[in-house]
Amino acid sequence: MFRVIFGVVASVLLIPGIALAEFVYTGVEAGYVDVEFDTGAGTLDGDGYRFAGSLELNERWFMHGEYEDRDFDSILGVGIGGSHMELGAGYAHSFSDSLDFVGTASWVNEEVDVAIPGFGAVGVDSDGIALGGGVRARVADSFELGAMLQWVDLDGGSDTGIELMGRYFFTPRYAFTLETDINDDFDTLTFGFRAEF
Question: What DSSP string runs through 1-52?
Fold first, then answer.
């Protein structure tokens, strides 16, 4: 799967670049997600989809949200799935035309569902908060990179992770996206599409 994703990204790099204006904080994203979850006894592989969006309120503040649905490989007939939801607010400070600091504060919900043949499904639901801080940087006419450190505190404990993001704009408002989240217990890789307004 990773070879297919990086093959698509490599072919996209051949498209001529687009000159971009300042960073935009109103937009929507949709993508395919590949997940690896460390259970302590081994690794579970899964995939799913992700939808995200943000709305710029003024020059510095914006609202944001995302929903991610995941299905993991079954173990001895036991089906495992889950979802992630995040709603919050963000603050952006421009250091220059090509570099922004971004901070976020969010409510987070994580849900895990386990379906055992003959016994039905059991769900575990956790709520908490997430705080993040990082940068968005324009490194070329049509390329944007980003990095964010995020701390999440849920009912079951806390976790600190890093999010790395790349966007290739093939028009001033439309981009292909590649994003990875690296955490203590799970890693995700998302390939998708972004539209800005």
Answer: -HHHHHHHHHHHTTSPP----S----EEEEEEEEEEEE-SSSEEEEEEEEEE
